[in-house]
Write a structure and sequence with these properties.
CATH class of the largest domain: Mainly Beta
Radius of gyration: 37 Å
Largest sheet: 8 strands, antiparallel, barrel
Shape: rod-shaped
Number of helices: 3
Distance between the termini: 90 Å
Structural class: alpha+beta
Strand content: over 45%
Strand order of the largest sheet: 1-2-3-4-5-6-7-8
CATH topology of the largest domain: Porin
CATH architecture of the largest domain: Beta Barrel
């Protein structure tokens, strides 16, 4: 019997007590651990692959945002540059914009264009006239200088026409009701989410009848402007 035990111990040097291990040799144990680790990694990749990862906007997406946009913008303008009288005007614009074209690259000019149409309603809070109604057509350029930023600087400009309740009999009053307008603005917009933006900027407005009356006391107005935009 002692000879049989010694023979079994010589046959399995890892079994110090002469009893066969139920887990096998060290080499078999290492292979089992390696297979278990591979199975775990494969299972985790299957699970995590089914979880939707947060979408990160690429530079291409930033230059091709939502195509259409509506904006409601308000401003408060003051007469300047030798005004015929002390003017203060409240501006209310309802604006529709459509995106077209972009400048791509890695410089400060990178951005995209928008063509816009604005309907204008302007109570004249202080001045000779009382109100102005009109429209304006123009272009806005949005600078996408810093990828991933919610802040986008912009500039815009356009021309249009409208009607003012003129009082040519009063010195310094507008010569007729029909009046042209020129708008230019600069500011910065902040993206709240994929659809909503707010913007703040400075607005310049010029009103004139283009010399159709003599005299033609045009108006030059400057002031701040705030807006809320919805894109889709």
């Amino acid at each position: 019997m002692r000879c049989a035990v010694r023979s079994a111990q010589r046959a399995d040097p890892t079994n110090c007590n002469g009893i066969n291990s139920p887990y096998g040799s060290p080499r078999q144990m290492n292979m089992l651990r390696a297979l278990s680790a591979c199975a775990f990694l494969l299972s985790w990749s299957q699970i995590s692959g089914g979880i939707e990862q947060p979408r990160v906007a690429t530079t291409t997406e930033e230059l091709d945002p939502q195509r259409f946009e509506f904006a409601l913008e308000s401003g408060y303008l003051f007469g300047a540059i030798n005004p015929p009288a002390d003017y203060q005007i409240l501006t209310e614009f309802l604006t529709a914009r459509i995106r077209w074209g972009a400048i791509r690259g890695n410089n400060w000019l990178r951005g995209y264009n928008q063509f816009y149409f604005s309907a204008m309603a302007e109570p004249i809070l202080q001045g000779i006239e009382n109100h102005y109604f009109g429209f304006n057509l123009g272009v806005r350029y949005n600078f996408v200088v810093r990828p991933g930023s919610r802040l986008v600087p912009y500039i815009s400009g356009g021309v249009g026409a409208g009607w003012i309740d003129s009082h040519p009999e009063i010195p310094g009053g507008q010569g007729q009701d029909f009046t042209f307008n020129i708008l230019s603005a600069a500011g910065i917009s902040y993206s709240v989410n994929d659809h909503w933006k707010v913007n703040v900027g400075a607005l310049y407005q010029h009103l004139s009848n283009g010399g159709q009356t003599d005299p033609n006391p045009s108006l030059n107005l400057f002031g701040p402007q705030l807006g809320v935009n919805y894109s889709f």
